[in-house]
Structure formats: C-alpha cells, structure tokens
Prior knowledge:
This protein is α+β, with helices and mostly antiparallel strands. The protein contains 9 helices and 11 strands.
Amino acid sequence: MKAGITLKLFLAILAAASVAAAAMALATRWSFQSGFLGYLSQVESQRLDALSTALADEYRRNGGWDFVRGDYSRLREFVAASAQLTQRFTLLDARRSLVVGNPESSGAAERPIIVDDRIVGWIARAPLRRLSNAAEEAFQQEQLRAAWVIAAFAVALAGALALFLARVFLLPMKRVADATHRLAGGNYATRVDVRSSDELGRLGDDFNRLAETLERNETLRRRFMADVSHELRTPLAVLSAELEAIEDGVRPLDKGSLVSLRNEVGALSKLVNDLNQLALADVGALAYRKQTVDVVPLVEQAVESYRERLAARGLELESAWNGQAPVYGDTDRLLQMFRNLLENSARYTDMGGRVRVAVRRDQDRVAIDFDDSAPGVPPDALPRLFERFFRVDASRSRANGGAGLGLALCRSIADAHGGDIRAEHSPLGGLRVRVVLPASDLRAA
C-alpha cells in the first residue's frame, strides 16, 4: 500500500522536528558541560582569593613559608577541600619557586599573596578539566537525562502537531481531489468550497472556473445536438411527406413538385454547409486569405446583390459611406458576413420598412452598421442573438425560415479578424448589428 500525501507530509514534519530536537539536546549537553565546568572554575577562583588572604596572614605570623614547605596536609587545611582538589593547587614563593603542591599548576590561574604591600608568594590553580567528585557528576548526569527527556517530549509534541497540520493543510487539496473525481465522472455541477486566498485557494478557484466552463460547454453541446436534430428533422420531414404524396399519387410529379423538393434540399444543404462552416471555425480550420482591403466596395457589392430581394419585400434600402475604410482581412469571408447580415434584415424586417447600411472610419477602427426597422428585439435577447440556433420567436420566428446560424457564423468571422460584433436597438425601430474591425493602411497592401 502506497503512502498517501498526508502520511508523507506528517513524516517530513516529524523528521524535521526530530532532527531539531536531537540537535537541541546535543547542543544543550555540550553547553551544560562547558558551562558547568566554567561555573566550578569560577567558584574555585573565588576560593583562590580567600586562600590567598589566609596564606598571607599565616605568612605574616611565621615570617616565611617554612610552616608549609613540603607539607601537603598543611596546605590542605588552608584549602579546606578534598585531597584531589588540593593537588590542583601550588604554592610559590616571591621568586616563583615551588614551595609545596603540584608543579603542573604553575602558569595556571594565579593569585598574589601580599603582606604589607609586598608580594611574598603566589597561589596557583591548575585548570578544571573534569568533575572532581561524585556529587557533581551525578548532578551533570541528571541534567543530561532531563535534556533528553525534554527532547523526547518535544518530538512527541511535534508529532501530534505535525499530524494536525498535515490534515489541516491537505484538507483543501483533498476537497479538490474528491471534486476532481466527481468531475471526471461527468458531474459538471461539482464545485469546491474555497475558504482561503493562498495557493490552495487559488487552485480551488481555478477548479471552479474549469467546472463552470465544462458545465457550460456540456450544456451547449446538448443544446446544439438537440437544435441540429430539430433543424435537420424539419426539411427531412417535408421531403418525406412530399415524396410519399407523389408516390401515393396524391400530388403529381410535375415542375412545381420538383421545385418544392429542390427548395427543401437547398435549405437542407445550406444548413449542413453552415454547420460545417461553424465546425471549421471552432477548430480554427476555416481558411482565411487575408490582405489589406477596402471594405467599402465589399459592402457596396453585398448591398447590390440584395437590392432586388429587399425591394421585393418592399424594404427601402439606404447606404452611407464616405472615403476609404481599409482593414486587414479575407475578402470572401467579409463579403459572406455582410451578406448574412443583409439576409437577416431581409428575412425578419416587416414589409414596407427600411434597411440602412453605414460605414465609417474612426481613427484606428472601421465600424459597419446594419440597421433595420420594426420589429425590434427585446433587451434580454440582444446578447443571445449570436448563439447558434437562437431566435426571438415573438417577432423573428422560424416561420421566416433560416436555422439561426447566420449570426453565429458572423461572430466567428469577426473574431477571426480581431474585431467585434454586437447587437443594439436601432434608431429605425428594429435591430442594429455593428461590426467593428481594426483599421489598416492601404499603402501596406
């Protein structure tokens, strides 16, 4: 069984705490040993001052060092310590000649013995390199054992704290992991409860945005499939009904029947072609051959191609442009977009209305407006006009034909040219579709 990340984090924190506790215990042991010996040396230094005074008084009474020369027991009486401690002291005369004691103590810590403002000798003490009695050693061992006990307690406390922190720190990650499993299983409504603003909090926010995107895409996919099946079913049902009528002899196979069948096939072909164009645009495979081109002639060409169709519906066509409006784009795709927008106006504008097309250049932008008269579009429907298969059924219904793909394709073309397309209320009472493209320079062509 593989160790989980919680166990790994726990062991990492515990190992770090254990190393720190062991290092602290060793440092404490070294510090105590050196400090304790230093303390004992300081105590002996004070004892050395008192010994110097006592020896000075005795020297004054005896008039010299004969009273102690070569007599260790006599020196021990003055030191008032154990035999081992006495052996670390040495008595020297004024010329630093040995009187009594350990010769190795010479050159160590010294105190002068002064009588009547005159140095008559020196008392020296060898450095303390180890503990000299059992009580001191027992005290040191007790302190060292206490240091190791404290270190062990610190490790245990660190272990409990590491376990708590590992669970706390990894709880947000566990929530993200569980949510990821649900998301991978197709539950796109999964969201993570974000409770912090750190890296894990930002990870939760990114996960929620990803889930929202997937949920939206799944909704669009299902709606797209439903809309496609509906749009394909309508012309196929009409074709099937007309063919059955001809087959049963209800309707004669004449030119009128063939024209009707051809119209349905044409509508079906246009739907399939639009779907193919949108699919290519989605995957970035829609071909564009861009160059610097003036959009005014393209708009004129599109307007002329729809003049008769608009006139047949009793729509008055107006146009307004002045000068050049160069952009960097694909001539065929731009012309396709302009024709789609004119087709939208011709299809959904009430008879006897008006259609107006205007082109203007505003510094680094070129704006093309397509305005038509009533009926208008509700405000809440304006942002959705460029969605696939979307129609405003109240005024621009399926009865007028079309599959609701023309404006979606226009948006793809505008996006591919680095531009923008949006729907607004028209001053003519209907809909305004404004296309904004980055302006170019004809001299660069």
